[in-house]
Amino acid sequence: MKKILIAILLTALIGGATFAPAATVGPDNGTLIIVGGGDKTSIWPTFLDLIGGKDAPIVIIPTANEKGEENTKDQEELAGLGATNIKILHTTDRNVANSAAFVEPLRTAKGVWISGGRQWRLVDAYLDTRTQREIEAVLARGGVVGGSSAGASIQASYLVRGAKAGNKVLMAPGYEKGFGLVKNSAIDQHINTRGRSDSLREVLAIHPGLLGIGLDEATALVVKGDVADVIGAGVARFASRSTGAYSHVELTSGGRYDLAKRQVIPAQQPAAASGTTAAVAGPVRVAIYSDEGSPKAPDLIEACLTPEPEGFVFKRVSAEEIRAGVLKDYAVLAEGGGRASLQAEALGDAGREKIREFVRNGGGYIGICAGAYLAAADRPYYLRLVNAKVVDREHWARGGGNVQIRFTEEGRKLLNEPSQTVQIRYNQGPLLARDSQTDLPSYTELAVFETEIAEKGAPRGVMKGTSAMVNAPFGKGRVFISSPHPERTEGLDHIIRAAIRWAAGVPISANPAP
Q1: Across-strand partners of 239?
Q2: What are phi and psi of 67, to 5 degrees?
Q3: Is residue 13 part of a domain?
Q4: Structural domain of 240
Q5: Residue 334, strand partner residues
Q6: Considering its fold, how many domains does the chain have in total?
Q7: Do 311 and 168 share a structural domain?
Q8: How far apart (Å, rounded) are the C-alpha atoms in residues 149 and 165?
Q9: Cβ neighbours of residue 444 under 8 Å, at least 6 residues apart?
Q10: 218, 240, 264 - which closes a domain
Q11: What is the pLDDT of residue 467?
């Protein structure tokens, strides 16, 4: 009878309605940068800024990669951005990892970067060694420890995908302990490219006290104490079984998460251009460009926002007001259709730089048609907010009408769009493709053109497959651009509201149904 009662009690504890896990927190001092793998172009500037600049001493640990110290990609990328003081630290010998001579570079490092590869190599070489203790000491004196892919997972207390047998094995006896820089956590990576969106559910079923963190590629958490800030191009997922049932939340760049309380930190509307003040959370404050080159756009954008008066506060602003610094009072700038060249001319060099400064310091930018042209990077008078170029520019006046676009999975989620394909109004917007600007991160494709308009001498077959809607980080801010016109298409005005919320840093889960 006693055994039966014990079994019932254990079952209740495991599957009960309430579970109180130990707190999940980062280091008491210093900063962690945890990257989901892939392109780090948008992440490196944050790393360099946090360590104190390009001359600060950096230690790169490439051991997770099969080639070890020969893997110099991270070193090359940082050096290409101007970093001047980089040292490589690599060994597979634990005796060496425990030696004073080996860890000497860590004693003066302001930043440590743990490269990607296979987690088990980091465990075999460094777990519970003098090297790990010196990495912790970098944080203790206020430094930065970052890592991507395997270098992200190793920062957790519970190590996922540590098996020598392969990275498809989630939990491997003997390789389940990480460095514990984020206590009571498990971190997975490459979520969006390797079909791992639900992988942590299995881990939390066995270890319900953990906080599961899953990161898309080109996406990072910047962790200071209890707070994780999301930066980059994709989605960060936080999963737990704190109440007995599995639950998760998804955040994009600008989102914040309290690791200890295991809850989203509500978005605030920043006075972005100043970079110092924050207004009380509430309706998203939207500035709508209303000047030369945009005759009808303000009316159309306002019509998209008026159905939700509790969600948005908006005002039309002129080019002169932008030059004078009016954007500091807003969270998002919306730049609509018209003529990009006339908008750029009205803004002038000073106005365009004010917009760049606004977004760089945390503001959002929404560009539609002409506003999308203006955000691209391949013309001297453009804003250069997105690493995009315009395809077949000589036939920009290719006509107007309805076209079909297909949303990516990320696009449907971010824009709260239930349909995979829709008919949408197009009127000579840009055909976008990825550019190769070295100082800008790659964009995330949200929708592509499936049909085309090719009038006025425009060649056929060019428009299909080009990017119709994209988003990207720029500094601390967010940019969304759309070649076609959701604001001029019946039933698609919710896309504008969802994009503005995203640009303002409102969690995706806060978007109401269309």
Answers
A1: 212, 248
A2: -85, -5
A3: no
A4: 18-264
A5: 288, 366
A6: 2
A7: no
A8: 17
A9: 218, 233, 234, 410, 470, 471, 472
A10: 264
A11: 93
- Amino acid identity of 234? G
Task: Give the pLDDT confidence score for residue 479 in this predicted structure.
Answer: 96
Domain harbouring 422, CATH code: 3.40.50.880
- Helices 297-305 & 493-503 angle (0-180, nearest 10): 80
Per-position DSSP letters for 379-415, written without gaps between them = STTS---SSEEETTGGG----EEEEEEEE-HHHHHHH
Asked which of 229, 264, 299 is the last residue of a domain, the reply is 264
Alpha-carbon distance values, 492 to 130, 174, 432 (Å): 58, 52, 21
What is the rounded end-to-end Cα distance, in angstroms, of the chain?
56
Under DSSP, is residue 137 helix (H, G, I), strand (E, B) or coil?
helix
Q: Are 123 and 162 in contact (CB under 8 A)?
A: yes
User: Using CA atoms, how far apart are residues 24 and 214, in angstroms rounded to an integer?
Assistant: 15
pLDDT for residue 267? 60
Is residue 433 in some structural domain?
A: yes
Distance between CA atoms of residues 243 and 249, nearest Å: 14
CB distance 163 to 172 below 8 Å: yes
Q: Are residues 457 and 312 in the same domain?
A: yes
Task: Tell me 510's DSSP state.
Answer: G
Question: 382 in a domain, yes or no?
Answer: yes
Quote the tokens at residue 404.
């079909």
Give the whole-angstrom CA distance, residue 508 versus residue 501: 8
For 292-312, letters b (16+ CB in 10 Å) and e give: bbbeebbebbbebbeeeeebb
Sheet containing 236-240, strands listed edge to edge, beginning at the edge strand earlier in sequence: 156-158, 182-188, 211-215, 236-240, 247-251
Q: Is the CB of residue 343 less than 8 Å from the CB of residue 292?
A: yes
Classify 132 as helix, strand or coil. Answer: helix
Contact between 127 and 158 (Cβ < 8 Å): no
Residues 241 and 313 in one domain: no
Averaged confidence pLDDT in the chain = 89
Low-confidence ranges of the chain (pLDDT < 70): 1-21, 69, 71, 243, 267-281, 509-510, 513
Please answer whether residues 256 and 208 qualify as being in contact, where contact means their C-beta atoms are separated by less than 8 angstroms.
no
Whether 73 and 205 share a structural domain: yes
Residue 249 shares a structural domain with residue 388: no
Contacts of 355 (CB under 8 A, 6+ apart): 322, 327, 333, 347, 365, 383, 385
